[in-house]
Amino acid sequence: GGRAGGGAGMGRGSRGGGGAVGATERGLSKQEIKSLLSEEGAIRGNDFETAVIVDNKGNVVFKKKGDKTPVTIPYGAPLKDNILTHNHPAAYKDAKGRPMANTSFSDKDIITVIGGNAKGMRIISQGGTRFSMTRPASGWGVSPSKIGAKVAGAKKSVYNALSKYVQNYKGDKSVAAGRADQLYWHLVSKKLSKTLGYSYTKQ
Predict the structure, then answer these.
(1) What are phi and psi of 38, to 5 degrees?
(2) The pTM is what?
(3) Alpha-carbon dihedral 4, 8, 68, 122, rounded to 10 degrees
């Protein structure tokens, strides 16, 4: 969904292969951090998507490999109060076929994690960038039936702003369009996090 090629998406402690502990690990237990960084390190370089769900003790309670299309999370997957992480391969392309190694959460990602009342969701990109969204103590701030409308509103607002940016860009418009594609899902997540009050981090 969203801009063509704009993002992969899913439907319904120590330094490791996934990187160093930082802002995206804030608020997590040592067990969660160790497990998440280990799993993310193992899938980061793949050209296919893999989804992993980790519980609050660091146990992997679900794992599913996909291909060069997004992984589908089945109904009944143990999302509630757990953390879902996955990789976004550089195999995903923008509208001009350029690799997109550092894309943030897609609309389907966001709807999946909030609809399943997960504790949070993470991405490890092939370029090494990590993204996280974390449920606040008060909950996600939106009912499952209204998530789609909230996401659609954020997408429309960001799309309009980036369209203006490209139109007003002084220079090669394809350069501006490439930047817009890379920023699109990041800006959607930033806008939604402010609207709904959850934590969103890029590192």
Answers:
(1) -65, -50
(2) 0.81
(3) 170
